[in-house]
Design a protein that fits this description.
Shape: globular
Strand content: under 5%
Mean pLDDT: 88
Distance between the termini: 29 Å
Number of strands: 0
Largest sheet: none
Radius of gyration: 21 Å
């Protein structure tokens, strides 16, 4: 099978896996008997098999592309985005173990399955977008013929996609808190400013396209649907107490996994530039955008340790950091400032003759 066919297979695995994981997660939030819970536990064990299988097909696609173009497949958006989804699948498997999601029981296991479902759904949307891009392979220009090429891009992709996952986790927290404030307003009232902040933020990502719609109103409405189902059970949304208590640690651990790779990508970019141009930092617009994204997370870490920010304050920074990363990675190429950037991908229009590559 060639690269495109393997991407299409990965898309199918992601789509089916997202549907399966979402169905299982919803069933966890419905009333059930002990026998039903035992069956759900068995069905839930299969959920992790989908990102594992998607990782295998995605990595196989990368290998196939390598032999098609005879260089590390990260020169165009058609190549680098699937590399990102591969790192996203790998990150999901790592996070599943680091966060102890395999040990969860009951509704907490349902949340774990929902978490995986949203990652797979995001990957499916991403790959469907990729398959509409220009598939033409291009020879590697001299500026990219460096040992830094593969490690720099791969580190950034793992960091970016892991921190996207952190954004999803933080946003899920606020969405469920919003709906609990709606359905159980007497017992769990929400300050008006937080109520409007969460509701309005659901609309903020919409201009970012289908991914923004999925992240913003998509997850917001899905959380509302699951919350509605939960209200039909005896304990209503009591399961959220445990999640709210552990959400800070949950999102922090995702950050801990992703941030070192983001930092490694930034450092390697400077070392690569120093080797190529004897200038480790040239204030290229894409370099500045990548630095801003990194600084968001540095501020998050600083405020956590120095100012004692925990819980929702820190999670808002994670969400804003995720938006910044998305702008750097996907939207930057469409901004006026990027037209003369040395970091534009070669399947974009108006690419400078001497380029390094987008971070």
């Amino acid at each position: 099978m060639d690269y495109r066919n393997l991407l299409e297979l990965t898309l199918k695995v992601s789509t089916f896996g997202a549907a399966y994981a979402l169905l299982i997660s919803i069933l966890w939030f419905l009333p059930r008997h002990n026998k039903g819970e035992a069956l759900l536990e068995k069905a839930s064990k299969l959920v992790l098999g989908f990102p594992a299988l998607a990782l295998v097909t995605n990595l196989t696609a990368q290998i196939a592309r390598y032999f098609e173009v005879m260089h590390w497949p990260a020169q165009t958006m058609y190549e680098v985005i699937p590399l990102g989804t591969a790192t996203g699948f790998l990150s999901t498997l790592i996070l599943y173990a680091v966060l102890g999601l395999h040990k969860q029981k009951g509704v907490a296991r349902g949340f774990a399955d929902l978490f995986v479902a949203l990652i797979l759904l995001g990957a499916a949307f991403t790959l469907s977008y990729v398959l509409n891009l220009d598939p033409t392979g291009k020879p590697l220009p001299p500026a990219l013929q460096s040992y830094w090429f593969s490690t720099h891009i791969t580190a950034y992709m793992f960091g970016y996609f892991t921190l996207f996952i952190a954004t999803i986790a933080a946003w899920l927290h606020f969405c469920f808190k919003f709906w609990r404030g709606i359905f159980q307003s007497k017992d769990y009232p929400m300050p008006t400013r937080k109520f409007w902040a969460i509701g309005l933020f659901a609309l903020v990502p919409i201009p970012f396209g289908m991914h923004g719609i999925l992240l913003g109103p998509g997850i917001f409405l899905l959380a509302g649907f699951i919350s509605t189902l939960s209200m039909k059970t005896e304990n209503k949304m009591a399961w959220f107490d445990a999640w709210e208590k552990g959400s800070d640690r949950f999102t922090w651990l995702i950050f801990v996994v992703g941030f070192p790779f983001l930092t490694a990508g930034l450092i390697q970019g400077g070392l690569w530039a120093q080797e190529a141009w004897a200038l480790y930092w040239g204030w290229d617009s894409k370099e500045v955008s990548a630095l801003i994204s990194w600084l968001f997370y540095l501020v998050y870490m600083h405020l956590r340790f120095v100012a004692g920010w925990r819980g929702e304050k820190g999670m808002w920074i994670l969400i804003l950091g995720g938006l910044s990363v998305y702008i750097t990675f996907q939207l930057f190429g469409y901004l006026p400032a990027s037209q003369n950037s040395l970091h534009r991908y070669t399947d974009m229009e108006n690419v400078p003759a001497q380029r390094l590559l987008a971070d």
